[in-house]
Amino acid sequence: MKKLLYTILALSIIFSACKKEEQVTTNTNNNGNNSANTISDVVGIWEFKGDYDALGNLLPFESSIQGNCALQSTITLQSDGNAIWTGYYLQNEISGPCLSESQVFTFNYINSTTLEFIIPSSCGNATVTLPSSTQFKIPSCNADTETYDGGYLLYEL
Predict the structure, then answer these.
(1) Domain with 140 in it: what CATH number?
(2) What is the C-alpha separation between 45 and 56, in angstroms, rounded?
(3) Is the separation of the CB atoms in 51 and 140 below 8 Å?
(4) Closest-CA residue to 53 (of 156, 140, 144, 155)
(5) In whole angstroms, what separates CA 156 from the centre of its chain?
(6) Which residue among 99, 111, 126, 137 sits deepest, i.e. has the most Cβ atoms within 10 Å of its Cβ?
């Protein structure tokens, strides 16, 4: 009887110690980041998709060569608020080799639909809007008038 009691006691201890782990699920958006309305939602490499006018019309490139070159441009947003813009352009604007340049800047995460890019510019800091979790629009600056002209550059994650 004593052996039976010890066996039952041992089995009860073993089964109570074997607790099923709770499964934790995390909602993710299309880019695989947590969609917790934090800076982590925008971290990643954003690819340039085009330049749009104030009416939302895609502005054409001068040539397919120019377009292929410019569409390599990216903005990398990091979780520490730092960013790297890498722009591609043709050496002579419409011809020549495709060159690149990079600029480091910072940004502020305001909320899930708004960022502020801190970039030295005659127009000042840019308020960037996110129409979706995989797109953002940077307002176009008219360097001649030093104002935002209503157009925007579209980037996608």
Answers:
(1) 2.40.128
(2) 23
(3) yes
(4) 140
(5) 7
(6) 126
Domain of 61 in residue numbering reads as 35-156
Answer yes or no: is 19 within a domain: no
**How many domains is the chain partitioned into structurally?**
1
Tokens of 95: 């011809």
Q: Around Cβ 155, how many Cβ atoms within 10 Å? A: 23
0.85 cut: is pTM over it?
no
Residue identified by tokens 């008219």 is: 142
What pLDDT is recorded for position 10? 37
Residue 31 CA to residue 23 CA, distance in Å, equals 22
Give Cβ neighbours of residue 108 (< 8 Å, ≥ 6 apart): 81, 115, 116, 118
Q: What pLDDT score was predicted for residue 120?
A: 78
Instruction: Say if 104 falls within a structural domain.
Output: yes
Backbone angles phi, psi at 154, to 5 degrees: -100, 130
Q: List the structure tokens of 90.
A: 């043709």
Q: What does pLDDT average to in each consecutive run of 10 residues of the chain (157 residues)? A: 36 38 39 68 97 96 95 97 97 92 96 92 89 95 87 97
3 state SS of 92? coil
